[in-house]
Amino acid sequence: MRRRTPSRRPAKVQPIGPVQTFHVEGLTHEAKGVARLQGKVTFIAGALPSETVSAQITKTGRHFDEAVLVNIIEPSAYRIDPSCQHFNECGGCSFQHLMDEQQLSSKTDWLKGQLRNVLSGQDLALLSDTSTKYRRRARIAVDNKKGSLSLGFRGKASKDIVSIKQCVVLTTSLQETFHSLKLALSGNDLASALGHIELLEDTKGVSVLFRLTSTVSEALESSWQVWAQQEEVSLYWQAPSMSKADVAPENMRYYDLDGLRLSYHPQDFIQVNAAMNQKMVAQAMDWLNLTDQDVVLDLFCGVGNFSLPLAKRAQSVIGVEVQETMVAAAKENAHQNGFDNVSFIAADLTQPVAHQFKKEGVTKVLLDPPRAGAFEFLDTIIKIKPTQILYVSCNASTLARDAEYLIAKGYRVLRVSLMDMFPQTSHVETMMLLQKKK
Ligand SMILES: C[S@@+](CC[C@H](N)C(=O)[O-])C[C@H]1O[C@@H](n2cnc3c(N)ncnc32)[C@H](O)[C@@H]1O
Ligand code: SF4
């Protein structure tokens, strides 16, 4: 087992008071060790349960203090060396010092706590995959202000950009592209015109999008096309005046899923973890157990990530999505994959939607909202009276709120699953199946 005794002192946090010894009892969702000093709770970033550490208070509050870890006196049996050399500074990951299994049990405990008011003894099924090399999309920050180029991510302790040599959660191909980009941008005129860079990997290959803050010459663009050819990546340019629709609409991306091919624009939402997306969609199909009698409403449907697998199994599917360009992509995806039993509607689900879903005979609803949840649309769902609601959530607190409401209106929780879409980070995704009470 790899162990270490690090000295973690994030920059720009000023300790106050002496170095003191703490015994760590718990772990927060954001990977802060929980200790008590004379009864008062102290959160120590980077400390793990059962550890004895020395730390220095950085912030005092009425109910709790915050402290910075100085030294680990007695390490946890579950502490490991982070696989990323930037872990102490980079804000991208928070759990790399904890074994994978304990990351999952810590997330499970946290999720159970978040859902305590809606669970009644159900076990949390666990969906997970590899804990590194899983990110197929990343936004790379560019800092060229001080004359030297930094490519990386925002820091843990400040908003400054941490210069990254290698990011181990990116897919292998994206790590290679990032490495090559770093070398090619060093001393290159393009560096001073860059706002940020978007890396993407899908079934079509790797792509790089340069978001510009100022225009660049045609000669410079051409030289980068040569680099792109050598690296076998597709290049997209977004000049300051260009909207998303202007970014190479003729050069859509695509990914394969469930025997289907889904096209999307390089700036459209797609699930970041491809392997987990496959598992998540498969689990959703399994849980919904569709027949050719089912009519399914897929809310917040994007480019049809769930809608088309649903259309394979159900009588018909209606997808709803706010972004018109994604609705257009979803329609094209249905057409290209030969479905005539799926339709898509562009609508903002936080506002009253004129469409009469009830008339369509919807039997089941799948919803996959952004972090804010779907509270505004719940009454419409309830009026439709689906027998089952499958809720995919990236925010357990809005899920808990929405599920509580659905339970109060006659549904019960059948199954829940923690989906570890973003290992090494504190993010937790959840799938919940609710059933209408008889
Ligand atoms: C978490 S993504 C899920 C997309 C899709 N289900 C998937 O798996 O790829 C949420 C989607 O909801 C859409 N969205 C966000 N706010 C919305 C709103 N108010 N009304 C309808 N769709 C919205 C976003 O554009 C995005 O495509
Ligand atoms: S996001 Fe990447 S660079 Fe940052 S800590 Fe995680 S693996 Fe390292």
Short précis:
Helices cover 22% and strands 31% of the residues.
Fold blueprint:
Layout: E1 19-27, E2 32-37, E3 40-45, E4 52-60, E5 64-74, H1 100-114, E6 124-127, E7 137-143, E8 150-154, E9 161-163, H2 172-185, E10 194-202, E11 205-212, H3 218-231, E12 233-238, E13 253-257, E14 260-264, H4 274-288, E15 295-299, H5 307-313, E16 316-321, H6 324-336, E17 342-346, E18 364-367, H7 378-384, E19 388-393, H8 396-408, E20 411-419, E21 429-436
Parallel strand pairs: 3-5, 6-20, 11-12, 15-16, 15-18, 16-17, 18-19
Antiparallel strand pairs: 1-2, 1-4, 2-3, 4-5, 7-8, 7-10, 8-9, 10-11, 13-14, 19-21, 20-21
S-adenosylmethionine binds at residues 269-271, 300-302, 305-306, 321-323, 326, 348-350, 368, 370.
Integer average pLDDT? 94
Sheet with the most strands? 8 strands, mixed
Q: What overall geometry do the principal axes of the alpha carbons give? A: flat
- Would you tell me which CATH topology of the largest domain applies? Rossmann fold
With strands numbered from the N-terminus, the spatial order across the biggest sheet is: 6-20-21-19-18-15-16-17
**How many H/I helices?**
8
* CATH class identity of the largest domain: Alpha Beta
N-to-C order of helices and strands: EEEEEHEEEEHEEHEEEHEHEHEEHEHEE
- Going by CATH, the homologous superfamily of the largest domain would be Vaccinia Virus protein VP39
**CATH architecture annotation name of the largest domain:** 3-Layer(aba) Sandwich
User: What structural class should be given to the helix and strand makeup?
Assistant: alpha/beta
How large a portion of the residues is in β-strands, by DSSP E?
Answer: 25-35%
Q: What small molecules does this complex bind?
A: S-adenosylmethionine, iron/sulfur cluster
Q: Please give the domain count.
A: 3
Oligomer state equals single chain
Radius of gyration: 24 Å
- Beta strand count: 21
